[in-house]
C-alpha cells in the first residue's frame, strides 16, 4: 500500500514539474484546483518607495489599483467579490477559482516596476478511471490478464501478470494515466497536478479455487432458477384446474 502511494506521488510530482517548466517563461507557475483560492505575493518588499501599485490580468485587465501615499484602493467592479488586497504586503487573494481565471497575473509599481508575475493554471478534478477486464488466462504457475483503462480522453490496454503490466500495441504509460500491479491487484491511476483517482481489479479469477467457486455458484444459480420455474408452472396448472372445477 505504501509503495502504491509512492508511485502515485512520483507521477504527481513529475506532472507538476512539467507544468512549472512549461510556464516558467511567463512567470512563477501556480497550479490550483477549481474552487480553491490562491494568494499571490509580491516578490519584492512592500517598502520599495513606490507610490502606485497595480495588479493586472493577462497584462490588459486591471484588477486592483492602489495609490499608496493617499491610501486609496480601487478594486475593479468585475473583481469586487473575487479578490482581497492586502495593503501591507501588496498581496492579492483570488477566491473560488474557475478555469477562466487561468492566465498571467502581474503586480507593477511606479515606473512599470514588475514586483510579481504569476502564471496561474486552474484545473478541474480528474474523473474516476474505468478499468475493464478484457481477457484472462493462466497456467499452473502463472496468471495473465489483459485490461483496458480509460480516463478522460485517454485509454491504455496492458497485459499484466502478478508483477508487471506491459502496454500492448506499443502504447506507453503517459503522465495522466498509468497501469500497475501489486499483490495481485491491478491499479489504474488517473491524475493531473492537483488531483488523482484510481480504480482496481483483483486477479483472483486466474486461480482454480476461485474459478471453481464461480462455476459452483453458477451451477447452483441455474438449479435454483429451474426449481423456481417448475414451481411457478405447477402453481399455474393448479389454478387452471381450480377455475374449471368452479
How is this structure best described in words?
With 246 residues, this protein is an alpha+beta fold. Among the domains are: 34-123, Immunoglobulin-like (Sandwich); 130-208, no CATH class. Helices cover 24% and strands 41% of the residues. The chain has two helices and 16 strands. The chain has helices at residues 2-23, 208-245; strands spanning 28-33, 38-40, 52-57, 61-67, 72-75, 83-85, 92-94, 103-109, 113-123, 130-138, 143-151, 154-160, 165-167, 177-182, 185-192, 195-202. It has a six-stranded mixed β-sheet with strand order 1-9-8-3-4-5. The chain has a four-stranded antiparallel β-sheet with strand order 10-11-12-13, with no helix packed on it. Strands 2-7-6 form a three-stranded antiparallel β-sheet, with no helix packed on it. It is elongated. It is found in: Membrane. InterPro entries: CD2/SLAM_rcpt, Ig-like_dom_sf, Ig-like_fold.
Amino acid at each position: 500500500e505504501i509503495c502504491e502511494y509512492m508511485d502515485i506521488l512520483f507521477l504527481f510530482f513529475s506532472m507538476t514539474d512539467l507544468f512549472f517548466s512549461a510556464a516558467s517563461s511567463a512567470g512563477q507557475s501556480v497550479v490550483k484546483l477549481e474552487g480553491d483560492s490562491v494568494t499571490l505575493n509580491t516578490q519584492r518588499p512592500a517598502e520599495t518607495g513606490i507610490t502606485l501599485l497595480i495588479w493586472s490580468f493577462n497584462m490588459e485587465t486591471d484588477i486592483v489599483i492602489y495609490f499608496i501615499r493617499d491610501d486609496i484602493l480601487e478594486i475593479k467592479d468585475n473583481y469586487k467579490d473575487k479578490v482581497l488586497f492586502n495593503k501591507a504586503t501588496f498581496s492579492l487573494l483570488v477566491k473560488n477559482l474557475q478555469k477562466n481565471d487561468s492566465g498571467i497575473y502581474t503586480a507593477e509599481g511606479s515606473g512599470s516596476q514588475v514586483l510579481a508575475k504569476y502564471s496561474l493554471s486552474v484545473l478541474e478534478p480528474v474523473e474516476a478511471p474505468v478499468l475493464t477486464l478484457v481477457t484472462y488466462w493462466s497456467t499452473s504457475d502463472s496468471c495473465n490478464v489483459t485490461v483496458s483503462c480509460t480516463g478522460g480522453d485517454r485509454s491504455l490496454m496492458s497485459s499484466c501478470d502478478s508483477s508487471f503490466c506491459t502496454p500492448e500495441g506499443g502504447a506507453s504509460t503517459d503522465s495522466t494515466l498509468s497501469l500497475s500491479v501489486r499483490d495481485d491487484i491491478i491499479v489504474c491511476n488517473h491524475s493531473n497536478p492537483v488531483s488523482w483517482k484510481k480504480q482496481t481489479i483483483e486477479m483472483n479469477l486466474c486461480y482454480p479455487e476461485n474459478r471453481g467457486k464461480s462455476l459452483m455458484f453458477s451451477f447452483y444459480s441455474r438449479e435454483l432458477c429451474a426449481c423456481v420455474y417448475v414451481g411457478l408452472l405447477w402453481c399455474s396448472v393448479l389454478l387452471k384446474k381450480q377455475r374449471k372445477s368452479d
